[in-house]
Amino acid sequence: MSQKPVIEKVENINTNTKFIGLQTLHWRDQEGKQRKWENAYRTTRSEGGVDAVSIAAVLKYKNSTKPSDVILVEQYRPPVDSNVIEFPAGLIDKEGESAVQAAIRELREETGYQGDSIRVIDESPVVANDPGMSNANMKSVTIVVDDIDENAPPPLQELDDGEHIVRHLVPLKDLHKKILEFSAEGKIVDARLSHLGIGLDLAQNASTLF
């Protein structure tokens, strides 16, 4: 008879690292067999139980027929030794900070967009980042930035020391096409962003595909 999987023991591995730790999970599967799983975990998890936030931010232009843009960022990621195209994102690492508060802060720091024109339209449940390798989790926050002047210069970023982040404004309707262009340039696209692009493309072409 099948049983519920259960973790029986967590063995921490001493890594003396600041942000990420390693564990061996001793667990029993649905058939009652004892197994082991190597697992990475965040050492910085907030009191609220959420590690990080990712921001899907859309710019709406005032007095213009210009289509809405989605804000992407590009930065070098050492684990993959490549520039990565992704959503603005960051750790929830300030005491008492909510996911929405962290999203607004990270959007301001990484892209410069802030102020009364910001509307938070969705906050996701907690979702797993890479559950086969890590317990890292996050929330996704969707933001609309209204009344953007398409002729105005972009706002100044508030980057931390050592951050080198490039902004990209991409028409939302062309997201999947632009993602393929980034990949063709040798850049790596974050899987979450890629999935959104594929989903939008499927939705736009559903009548001819299905």
Automatic annotation (TrEMBL):
Q: Name one GO molecular function term.
A: ADP-ribose diphosphatase activity
Superkingdom per UniProt: Eukaryota
| CDD domains in the cross-refs | NUDIX_ADPRase_Nudt5
Every copy of the Nudix hydrolase domain together lies at 48-196
Q: Does Nucleus appear among the keywords?
A: no
> Can you cite an annotated GO cellular component?
nucleus
Query: Which key words tag this protein in UniProt?
Result: Hydrolase
Q: Sorted alphabetically, which InterPro entries does this protein's record hold?
A: NUDIX_hydrolase-like_dom_sf, NUDIX_hydrolase_dom
Q: Which Gene Ontology BP annotations are present? A: nucleoside phosphate metabolic process; ribose phosphate metabolic process
> Do you know which PANTHER family this protein is assigned to?
ADP-SUGAR PYROPHOSPHATASE (PTHR11839:SF1), UDP/ADP-SUGAR PYROPHOSPHATASE (PTHR11839)
Q: What's this protein's name? A: Nudix hydrolase domain-containing protein
